[in-house]
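Hi R.,

As promised on Friday, here is the backbone we talked about, encoded as structure tokens. Could you run it through your design pipeline when you get a chance and send me back a sequence?
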């Protein structure tokens, strides 16, 4: 991956998580990374590591090979128009803004250049993100550069742009849903006698183990569930009670609600 300068516009939660992931994995030297934020003082911890920090988006993107747009959807047009004069035909744009299409970004830029939409989740900070990426106006080398970048911080794959909203819900929102499950399991653990920290440790590792089983073995979840459920056993009793209370349906409804919120924002 040949990137001499990478700029992240928007050093908020997600932008900072990406920056930490890049630095922790040694993908770039700190001096090759520039991060912007209006309240630039909040980025001082990066400056101490040698990262360039600034509140000037135009200077930050000048000479950049890759530009992350880690800002809110309503800020995209203003930010792009602010930095357009610093962009070239080969500048790779990676937008993290939900619901803003590549065509809209191209229109704001007023020029044809490689545009990617990406939706990592916050586990990118520890190199465990699931990142879905769409590609527009990009050649194979540019696609390889972007996928290689994200694969150093977890798993990454190219999806059709029409699936980016769904990817946002399943991967980015999904990490919050998984956290809520762990929180609920922890609270249940406290109810049955564990201290809060011990319950959290057990619940979190159990979820991690379940995910690793599916990823490494490639089995369907029900195949692994069948190995744990025995006739008249405690596991099946608990699972059935959860289903009676709407466990699966409430999760599916939550996913659909988040997805519909994204779709309605486009209208």
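Update: got your reply. Pasting your designed sequence below so it's all in one thread:
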């Amino acid at each position: 991956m040949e990137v001499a300068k990478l700029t992240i516009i928007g050093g908020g939660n997600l932008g900072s998580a990406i920056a930490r992931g890049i630095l922790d994995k040694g993908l770039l030297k700190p001096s090759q990374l520039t991060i912007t934020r209006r309240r630039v003082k909040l980025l001082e911890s990066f400056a101490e590591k040698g990262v360039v920090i600034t509140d000037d988006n135009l200077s930050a993107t000048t000479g950049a090979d890759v530009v992350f747009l880690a800002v809110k959807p309503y800020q995209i047009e203003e930010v792009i128009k602010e930095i357009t004069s610093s962009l070239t035909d080969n500048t790779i744009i990676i937008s993290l803004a939900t619901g803003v299409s590549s065509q809209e970004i191209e229109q704001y830029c007023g020029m044809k250049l490689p545009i990617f939409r990406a939706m990592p989740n916050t586990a990118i900070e520890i190199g465990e993100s699931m990142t879905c990426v769409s590609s527009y106006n990009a050649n194979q080398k540019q696609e390889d550069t972007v996928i290689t970048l994200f694969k150093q911080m977890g798993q990454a794959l190219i999806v059709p742009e029409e699936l980016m909203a769904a990817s946002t819900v399943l991967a980015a929102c999904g990490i919050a849903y998984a956290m809520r499950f762990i929180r609920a399991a922890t609270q249940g653990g406290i109810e049955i006698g564990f201290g809060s920290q011990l319950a959290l440790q057990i619940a979190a590792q159990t979820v991690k183990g379940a995910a690793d089983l599916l990823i490494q073995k490639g089995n369907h979840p029900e195949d692994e569930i069948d190995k744990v459920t025995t006739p008249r056993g405690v596991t099946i009793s608990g699972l059935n009670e959860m289903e009676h209370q709407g466990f699966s349906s409430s999760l599916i409804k939550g996913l659909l609600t988040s997805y519909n919120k994204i779709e309605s924002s486009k209208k």
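One thing I noticed while checking it: Residues 112 and 150 are 23 Å apart (CA to CA).

Thanks again,
M.
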